[in-house]
Design brief:
This protein has three helices and four strands. By secondary structure, it is α+β, with helices and mostly antiparallel strands. The chain has one domain. A two-stranded antiparallel ribbon has the order 1-2. The protein has a two-stranded antiparallel sheet with strand order 3-4. α1 crosses α3. The N and C termini lie far apart (29 Å).
Length: 121
């Protein structure tokens, strides 16, 4: 059993919009964001947020969590800085899964599929 992040709101995905599978694998179960959400936190975009890139598009306390995510992702990838599209953060939810998952995305709306979930007609 593990906890993962996914963004089931239309508009922007979380892992499905990552630039690489390494970024997606890092983002799907990033513990500080899971802890933030499970503690009642929400990511709120600033009214002018879309004019900013990255974590600065969000209000505190979520901005600090997302800045830490950007820093940790860059360190994980061995880079000074990365651009990870954070638009899906505003709709992030935590799901509990039992193993590997596939994140399906349609128009930014992500859904979680586990082995055996698919129904074949």
């Amino acid at each position: 059993m593990r906890k993962i992040l996914y963004s089931p709101g239309y508009g922007a995905g979380w892992t499905s919009w990552a630039d690489s599978s390494d970024e997606a694998k890092f983002a799907i179960d990033y513990a500080p964001i899971i802890e933030f959400l499970e503690g009642g936190g929400v990511f709120v975009e600033r009214p002018w947020g879309r004019a900013h890139k990255g974590a600065d598009a969000f209000e505190e306390p979520g901005r600090s969590v997302l800045k830490k995510f950007e820093e940790d992702l860059a360190a994980h990838l061995g880079k000074d800085h990365v651009y990870f599209y954070l638009g899906g953060a505003r709709d992030l939810q935590v799901a509990v899964v039992n193993g590997p998952v596939r994140i399906n995305e349609y128009d930014g709306f992500e859904s979680v599929e586990e082995p055996g979930d698919a129904q074949y007609l």
